Amino acid sequence: MSTLRSLAGLTATAAIALVGWSCEANRTALAPAGGPQFHFNVFQCQPLKMTGGGRIDYPPGTADKNPPASHEYETFGAHVIASGQFDENGVCVADKGSLEWVDHRPEMEVNGHPLNLHATSITFAELAVDTDCSDGAVHWGGILRVENTHQDGYDFEVWDCDNGEPGVGHDGFAIRVPALGYEVMCPDPDLPPAEPSCTLTGGNRQFHPTH
Q1: Comparing C-alpha atoms, which of 89, 92, 82, 80 is closest to residue 44?
Q2: Closest C-alpha among 75, 127, 123, 82 to residue 103
């Protein structure tokens, strides 16, 4: 069994709920397992830009940091830019973007190193208009590579929330890679910010007004 298949096995339960996911389904985010999703269901295709980076202490994904020695956290840098254009398939395409994601949890190590996901292509980006993210929210994604193994071609999606300043304790971010059975999502609607995004314990997400 390959190291990457072992990684997928760690979250096999979550993967069961993702079997129906496909590139065509990118425009409609699936509800997290365990109940309906109250945000990130209604989207508009319009110009947008989101930048910044952050840290999430998942689990549990709240505003509280886990003990440093636990290494139970994730860090990332990500941005996306879109001009609000549909392609011939009705997908709201992204113009450019990037994602670098590192999961520092010991149980998620691959080949002796923290799991490192790197986007090779950003394919869609749409404005979420049904969230309580005060400054802006974006659902976007594309294709990534697992840097630890150099395996490429995995679809991913993120839920990205700018909920005012400072970013710590207010902004949020979530990611899912269905083919790996991997996700860092916080579907509790009683926790800020808009679920399924997890609360940042470091960094900042910045939504930029566009015209």
Answers
A1: 92
A2: 75
109-123 pLDDT, tens per residue?
A: 999 999 999 999 999
Neighbouring CB atoms inside 10 A of 26's CB total 21
> What does the alpha-carbon distance between residue 45 and residue 47 come to, in Å, rounded to a whole number?
7
DSSP 203: E
In whole angstroms, how far apart are CA 208 and each of 5, 42, 44, 103? Answer: 38, 20, 16, 27
Measure the CA dihedral 106/162/157/65, to 10°.
10
Instruction: Read off the pLDDT of residues 30-74 as tens digits, 9 standing for 90 and up.
Output: 333 434 456 899 999 999 999 999 999 999 999 999 999 999 999
CB atoms within 10 A of CB 71: 15
Give the pair of three-digit tokens for residue 140.
């976007």
Tell me how far CA of residue 23 lies from CA of 67, 77, 126, 158, 210, in angstroms.
38, 23, 14, 13, 27
* pLDDT band at residue 209 under the 50/70/90 scheme: confident
Neighbours of 112 (CB within 10 A): 7
